[in-house]
Write a structure and sequence with these properties.
Layout: H1 2-22, H2 32-39, E1 47-48, H3 55-58, H4 60-63, E2 70-71, H5 73-78
Antiparallel strand pairs: 1-2
Length: 90
């Protein structure tokens, strides 16, 4: 009887975890810390134009407000947020 109850409990937990993992994850923009963790390849606390991609690369000059050739965390925090619209492919 104990084995039967344990088996049912394990199955219930397993079903619940499968249900949670099948729901789409809600994603928002990454945090500044996450951006730096991913892109700051030399770990100097700054992002150069060769380290960035996407909207940061496209708007690098605009975001680099002190014009030192690097993006600091403060500059990235103050950067205009992307519109979220993907460019159309041609």
């Amino acid at each position: 009887m104990l084995i039967g109850v344990t088996t049912i409990a394990i199955m219930a937990v397993s079903c619940k975890s499968q249900q949670a993992s099948s729901e789409p994850a809600k994603q928002g923009p990454p945090s500044v810390d996450a951006i730096f963790t991913k892109m700051d390849s030399n770990k100097d606390g700054l992002l150069s134009k060769t380290e960035v991609n996407g909207p940061l690369k496209e708007k690098f000059t605009e975001i680099d407000t002190n014009k030192d050739g690097f993006l600091s965390k403060e500059e990235v925090k103050k950067a205009p947020k992307p519109s979220g619209k993907r460019p159309q492919r041609q």
